[in-house]
Amino acid sequence: MAELKTAAPNPFAVAQAQLDAAAELLELEPAMHALLRNPLRELHVTLPVKMDDGTTKVFQGFRVQYNDARGPTKGGIRFHPDETIDTVRALAAWMTWKCAVVDIPLGGGKGGVICNPKEMSPGELERLSRAYVRQVGRILGPEMDVPAPDVYTTPQIMAWMADEYAFLQGHNEFGVITGKPLPLGGSAGRGDATARGGMYTIREAARVLGLETRGATMAIQGFGNAGQFAATLGRELLGSIIVAVSDSKGGIYKADGLNPFEVIKHKQRTGSVVGFPGAQSISNEELLELDVDILVPAALENVITARNAGNIKARISAELANGPTTPEADEILHKNGVYVIPDFLCNAGGVTVSYFEMVQNAYQYYWDEETVHERLDAKMTAAFHAVHKKAEDLHVHNRLAAYVVAVERVAEAVRLRGWV
Ligand code: GLU
């Protein structure tokens, strides 16, 4: 694992290299390219937090506002021990392309705090969340920058942050943050939106490939919010058989299919999917290389690299994680005929329903779940086909096609504003 970590590329360098390829294809003018290669603004904060034992611990946090040409910056906040400013920059860039590819009127941003929430009490997490908003709140707002959940942050954390922001403003401002619990202005359908949106793109990919999803085998790497809902919805919406899942502690495999609800219960009880009765244990590496129809990387960055891309046997790789595949691996997968649904397309369902949440907060009028699902489906399906068509027209892989679609839209807004 240590060896893997030191060899892992810098995610921001990856994001910039991906943009460079699109810029070349689009023949972007040098000033536009330079502008889109870097965040417009970033804030670094130092957060003193009182811990339960009476000591004070000082945390480091960030908020990056990558590009707001198309609207307020939007993107989640991660609480992770391995967070760095460059991961946040990369994720903020990907949010910019994500909002553009699904054509919602938002820019891209991201936040992060270096911490290990697994080792913190609820009280400590609440104080850290409030401390973050006390520092970063000055650059947040429904018209400026709107955070949401991401790795290891939850609706409860969003609720504390919305509450702290309300104290700063002197009044409620629900549109400042999304992924909130329903009683605090959350949207129906936000909880499973990332996975659900991903399932819609898999459905469309299967259509264009002539693959039957009913009875198809699916392996899911990562069993957090996105991975767990991918398992339940993969069965419910696509009729696929979930043969393997994994989390940071390891993976499990069962040829005739796992019951996702039972696996979720097991993880809630024991803290991991590992040791699930009746399943064979496998490593994360082995899971990625399984001979399945659909692979769903749903954990962290840089898991499919030049080292293992040649061993990927799946027909479709549906990236619910942000940044799971390196540029070298992309070339290998493309050459081998693996149909990649790139991250900022595949996982755009979360931010799409976040946008719906912002709209509902602004109107103070809330939609039912069915309406959310229908509108999400329409957005994801349109985005999928825009990217698929671009890939066919330009004879490039789907990630490059997704970049071309997204960058064209952002560049157009930048030009109209007269920035370049
Ligand atoms: N964190 C999610 C993402 O990476 C959702 C962001 C949002 O809803 O703003 O897309």
Low-pLDDT runs of 5+ residues are 1-6
Structural class: alpha/beta
Fraction of residues in helix: 40-55%
Coarse shape: globular
CATH level-1 class of the domain at 193-346: Alpha Beta
Estimate what percentage of residues fall within beta strands.
Answer: 15-25%
Molecules bound to protein: glutamic acid
For the record, give the distance between the C-alpha atoms at the N and C termini, rounded to a whole number: 44 Å
Give me the number of helical elements: 15
Please trace the helix and strand order, writing H or E for each element: HHHEEEEHEHEHHEHEEHEHEEHEHHHH
SSE topology sketch:
Elements (H helix, E strand, L loop, with lengths): L1 H6 L3 H16 L3 H7 L4 E10 L5 E12 L5 E2 L2 E4 L4 H17 L5 E8 L7 H15 L8 E2 L8 H15 L23 H17 L7 E5 L3 H14 L2 E7 L2 E4 L6 H11 L9 E3 L1 H5 L5 E4 L18 E3 L8 H9 L3 E3 L1 H4 L2 H15 L5 H26 L3 H20 L3
Parallel strand pairs: 3-5, 3-6, 4-5, 7-8, 7-11, 11-12, 12-13
Antiparallel strand pairs: 1-2, 2-5, 8-9, 9-10
Helix pairs in contact: 2-4, 2-15, 4-15, 5-6, 7-8, 7-13, 7-14, 13-14, 14-15
This protein binds glutamic acid.
